[in-house]
Write a structure and sequence with these properties.
This protein has 180 residues and is an alpha+beta fold. Helix content is 19%, strand content 43%.
Length: 180
């Protein structure tokens, strides 16, 4: 009888330890996502159908509506390999990154007034493979009020979503100093 009690106690302890470890893992993942500079943004691209490496250039777009005056707007962007960022048809930033590089930051505070706006990211890759990660902080709307996700379009079609950061090879991105 003592043997059965000991085994039962050991099983109860093992289950409690496994449960605590699972709770800790979820908590750490949640905290890491909250600390991520792009929050719930996802890695997007034109397609995952790449049979042979070849250069690609396309435009991913998202329409937004600003309902009230804002005092600050900060776009955070990472594009493997290169990009040009447009707001309402005007070039507002450009650059490019490789895995491990920090995000670029573009101040859009003076460019976003109440009304409809279109964000366009022209992405380019010499191999056809790449990723776009985007987050837009808007005063009054919050951190990462607009992010790259499945709601973006390429030529009127939904973008392909690679997944959530961290994702090989890009990981979580850190903030760089502002471009503009």
């Amino acid at each position: 009888m003592k043997f059965v009690k000991r085994i039962s106690i050991l099983w109860a302890i093992a289950i409690a330890i496994a449960g605590a470890a699972a709770i800790r893992a979820v908590d750490l993942s949640w905290r890491r996502m909250e600390r991520s500079e792009t929050g719930r943004a996802r890695w997007i691209w034109k397609t995952d159908d790449i049979k042979t490496p070849q250069a690609i250039r396309f435009r991913a777009s998202k329409s937004i509506v600003i309902e009230r005056e804002i005092s600050s707007a900060r776009a955070k962007i990472f594009v493997d390999r290169s990009y040009r960022l447009f707001l309402d048809g005007t070039l507002v930033g450009s650059g490019g990154q490789n895995a491990g590089d920090p995000l670029d930051v573009v101040d859009l505070s003076t460019r976003l007034s109440p009304g409809a706006h279109e964000i366009v990211i022209e992405a380019e890759s010499p191999t056809g493979i790449g990723g776009i990660l985007f987050g837009l902080d808007l005063s009054g709307y919050g951190r990462n009020a607009v992010v790259s996700d499945s709601s973006w379009k390429v030529e009127g079609q939904p973008v392909f979503v690679w997944g959530d950061p961290p994702m090989y090879p890009w990981r979580f991105s850190a903030i760089a100093k502002p471009l503009h």
